[in-house]
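User: Need the bound-state model for magnesium ion:
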Amino acid sequence: MTTAANMRTLVEVANLCVSYGSDEDENRVLDGVDLRVEDGDVLCIVGGSGCGKSTLLKTIIGLVAPKSGQVRLLGESLHTLTEQDQARLLKRVGVMFQYGALLNSLTVGENVALPLQMHTDLTPDFIDDLVETRLALVGLDSTSHLLPTELSGGMRKRAALARAMSLEPEVLFCDEPGAGLDPETAAGIDRLLLSLNQQLGMGIVIVTHELMSIDRLNGDLVMLDEGRVAYRGSVASARQADMEGLRRFFYPDGAA
Ligand SMILES: Nc1ncnc2c1ncn2[C@@H]1O[C@H](COP(=O)(O)OP(=O)(O)OP(=O)(O)O)[C@@H](O)[C@H]1O
Ligand SMILES: [Mg+2]
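Assistant: Bound-state model below.
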């Protein structure tokens, strides 16, 4: 059981600035982001298209270098670690990218097996069983022999989630897990994420635009705007908040 004494901070971002290209100030996407994710948190990150949500996730997992500021992941300063130490740390983290990012030359089963083969000493038979279990969890039983190109967009997303979960990470980052899915499948993914959080204590950070998902997950809502965290609070208080961006997000037709 988690107690206050052994609570860990999964992610600590302080005054983070990120820009693409050489003209740092012109292209600044993140401009002073502060964010903490504690053990067991569920966080939904929202904000307009292009405001830097995916960039924030990519910076937290080391794919984009910060221009300035601090990023700590599971207590370590990822960006200052050697490649080997980064790889060791990232084994404890699951990532589901916005566009699935499965390897197209490998079957679905091989994609899900890949992290297990790379990072564990489990036998091939055991890995095969685990892969089937993970795929069944996301409703993709009997698809392990298919290639990603033979799946629908929604199935690819679910396969990517199965791969992200394969090592039972301590924290899972999902970039728009429900986008483009039918409502029932999207709800199933939310239920799965919640059970990972509640049963395994996995911290979950999700970028999403889906109001239904935000309500179902019912974690903390973080709104990014103008390169910063403009709001953080419960979904209930975000709905009531006197903030233009939040009102437009929750009530796009103007009715409050
Ligand atoms: N690799 C890159 N090189 C240059 N600019 C980039 C790169 N990736 C993102 N950007 C720019 O950074 C800004 C933020 O992009 P990002 O993908 O983080 O937004 P987002 O909030 O995830 O948007 P969406 O909701 O559409 O997914 C955009 O202006 C985008 O054009
Ligand atoms: Mg994005």
